[in-house]
Amino acid sequence: MYFIKEEFSQTYEEKKSKFIAYLTPYSLFDSLMKRLREEHTKARHFVYAYRYLNEFEQIVENSSDDGEPKGTSGKPALNVLAGNELINSAVIIVRYFGGTKLGTGGLVRAYSDSVNLVINSAELLKYEKLQTAIIEVDYSTLSKVEYLINSLNIIVSNKEFTSKVKLHLQISDEQLSSLKTELPREVEIKL
User: Fold this and answer.
1) Which pTM value belongs to this model?
2) Where does the Impact N-terminal domain start and stop, copy by copy (predicted)?
3) Summary mean pLDDT of the chain
């Protein structure tokens, strides 16, 4: 599975109709929709599709045709997201009508092609399930451990400073095994 960290957009044209596809992290979906409705006041349709992982690691997905004939826009866009194994991502396609009706098959193709176009221009990142780990280190070894954590691209979600420093990490299985081999012996990892 894959996800994106930032917004991407591409424009696709078919028989003078313009389809502007915006691919965004799911967490920014609502704010992007609001912004696009304000920016594109003359657009006819704001079709969307999204897929995200809920707290039980289940994929939740939804789509909307926003006034287009049923099943010709939102569902095809969702199918493209699913086909590319995208999660925690949303796509909004802003359509400006060009005066020529495309028919149901033409709409399915145009919406699918616009989503494929923006996905192909996006930087997709591989999704890895993260777990929480906690390590306690002495102040004297903190900088060495932080350097190691940064070099492994491990996320530090919290730091607690007491007699020692407690680091709360968001870590993948692969990062965990690398960290275990490279940490000083006196540092213990708690999962």
Assistant:
1) 0.75
2) 15-118
3) 91
**Which residues, other chains included, contact 63 with Cβ-Cβ below 8 Å and sequence gap of 6+?**
47, 48, 49, 50, 74, 75, 77, 78
2 alpha-carbon distance from chain centroid? 7
What are 119-160's pLDDT values in tens digits? 999 999 888 788 888 999 888 888 888 898 888 888 888 899
Best CA proximity match to 4, nearest among 71, 86, 73, 82: 86
AA identity, residue 82? A
Q: Which domains does the chain have, with CATH numbers?
A: 2-126 (3.30.230.30), 131-190 (3.30.70.260)
Are residues 183 and 176 in contact, defined by beta-carbon separation less than 8 angstroms?
no
Non-local CB neighbours of 56 within 8 Å, separated by 6+ positions:
none
